Amino acid sequence: MAIPRLTETERDDALKGLSGWTLSEDGLAIEIELEFADFNEAFGFMARVALYADKADHHPEWFNVYNKVRVRLTTHDADGLSARDVAMAQFIDGIV
Ligand code: HBI
């Protein structure tokens, strides 16, 4: 399904409203590294995001080692950033 890619202005405005996210080198994604108290907290976070992702049909690219989780959000169907990435980042900002 084709999903519209954000314009550079929309992308930059969206980043201003987020906390701790950075634009990837290639400009196609937003990324964050999160640190939790322990693995239990980190995995609980991942479980909550997984339920959101399943409902939104939009899935993160992520990497977890013990209490750290690195999240990269991009929209494959848009070959870049879409509103779905911003919405998921806002959800994540709201639960950490
Ligand atoms: N997740 N990040 C991301 N990007 C997508 O384009 C995407 C997805 N999850 C499911 C999904 N697309 C489906 O709509 C199919 O296109 C696979």
Describe the structure.
It catalyses: (4aS,6R)-4a-hydroxy-L-erythro-5,6,7,8-tetrahydrobiopterin = (6R)-L-erythro-6,7-dihydrobiopterin + H2O. It is an enzyme of class 4 (lyase). Belongs to the pterin-4-alpha-carbinolamine dehydratase family. Keywords: Lyase. The chain has three helices and four strands. It is of the alpha+beta class and 96 residues long. A four-stranded antiparallel β-sheet has the order 1-2-4-3, covered by helices on one side. Helix 2 packs antiparallel against helix 3.
Features:
alpha+beta; 3 helices; globular; binds 7,8-dihydrobiopterin
Instruction: Report the count of strand segments.
Output: 4
Mean pLDDT: 97
* Strand order across the largest sheet: 1-2-4-3
Q: What portion of residues is helical?
A: 40-55%
- Biggest β-sheet description: 4 strands, antiparallel
Task: Report how far the terminal alpha carbons are from each other.
Answer: 31 Å
User: What percent strand?
Assistant: 15-25%
Structural class: alpha+beta
Named once each, the bound ligands are: 7,8-dihydrobiopterin
Number of helical regions: 3
Query: Outline, from the CA principal axes?
Result: globular
